Amino acid sequence: MWAVLLTLPACVTETTYTGQGNTRHDVVGPDLQAAAKTRLDLGIQYLRKGNTEQAKVNLDRALKYAPDSPEVHLGYAYFYQTVQDYAAAERSYQKVLTLSPQDADAMNNYGAFLCGRARYDEADAMFNRAVTQPGYAKIADTYENAAICATRSGKNDKASEYYRLALGYNPRKPSLLLDLAESAFTHGKLDEAQSYLNRYGEVAVENPDSLWLRLRLAQALDRPAQLHQYGSQLAEHFPDSQQAKRYLANDY
Predict the structure, then answer these.
(1) Radius of gyration, alpha carbons of the chain
(2) For a designed S-S bond to 196, which of 11, 132, 181, 212 qualifies (C-beta 3.0 to 4.6 A apart)?
(3) How many CA atoms lie within 13 A of 41 on its CB side?
(4) Which residues, at least 6 apart from 227, have a Cβ–Cβ distance to it below 8 Å?
């Protein structure tokens, strides 16, 4: 999964008053950065709820309070991606990196954006730039993103190397283990896929993706009893999932 912008909760007091048909919001106190973070948080919450109008209102106010805040411009990048204004999203990412040249989270998110636009070489460079930043703690996530992007661009050897690096930094990350299992299965490495699925089962609960992969692996290994065991689990626990519907339709 792509890493996404994290919201930044903060507390600040604002005064709202109405006079002569106009509503105004003024910050009480000198902490404009805190006010910006609060408005940024509200904007992202509205965006995740699908209310783009109120999201933009709050992001604009955050920008008014802190026009040079990298976090606010990163919020704009997320907003513009969501509304599919990709040129504006890119300008926002570039603004973030101008203001904060060592912001590895922004580099990671920008890399994901570039990959989504099929600009694979640029995305790869951005991911590799992110993992070299001092103090960056999400190296496993970024290498996983780089692996996913390399797979999309058809560079499977590079993807395998990125997966290996990601696993070294976080050997118990469920999504990574599932990605590795899927990759191994796709390349016919069935024993390897089974090993990753076993490790996945030690650190996470089953979901439609994991059960679907287990089902297909059982089919590839000619284990019909296991196939129907996993299919039954899909139908029982995730009846509305596409995987369950495909199992019930014998589409596997």
Answers:
(1) 22
(2) 181
(3) 12
(4) 215, 218, 219, 252
Cα–Cα distances in angstroms (integers) from residue 166 to residues 5, 6, 9, 248, in the given order: 20, 21, 29, 35
Tell me the per-residue pLDDT of 84-123, one tens digit each, with 9 for 90 and over.
999 999 999 999 999 999 999 999 999 999 999 999 999 9
Amino acid at 233: Q
Q: How far does CA 139 lie from the centroid of its chain?
A: 14
By the 10 Å C-beta count (0-12 exposed, 13-18 middle, 19+ buried), 111 is classed as buried
Both structure tokens of 127: 């991911």
29 within 8 A of 12, measured Cβ to Cβ: yes
d(CA 33, CA 66): 6
Do the Cβ atoms of 174 and 203 come closer than 8 Å?
yes
Domain boundary among 101, 129, 154: 101
Least confident of 20-24, 101-105, 115-119, 128-132: 20-24
Total structural domains within the chain: 3
Range of 220's domain? 172-251
Q: Which two three-digit tokens encode residue 176?
A: 């990574």
Strands (E), the chain: 14-19, 22-27
Whole-prediction pTM: 0.76
- The yes-or-no verdict on residue 157 having pLDDT over 60 is yes
- Across the chain, which distance is largest between two alpha carbons, in Å? 77
- Does residue 40 sit in the same domain as residue 94? yes
Compute CA 115 distance to the chain's CA centroid, rounded to the nearest angstrom.
12
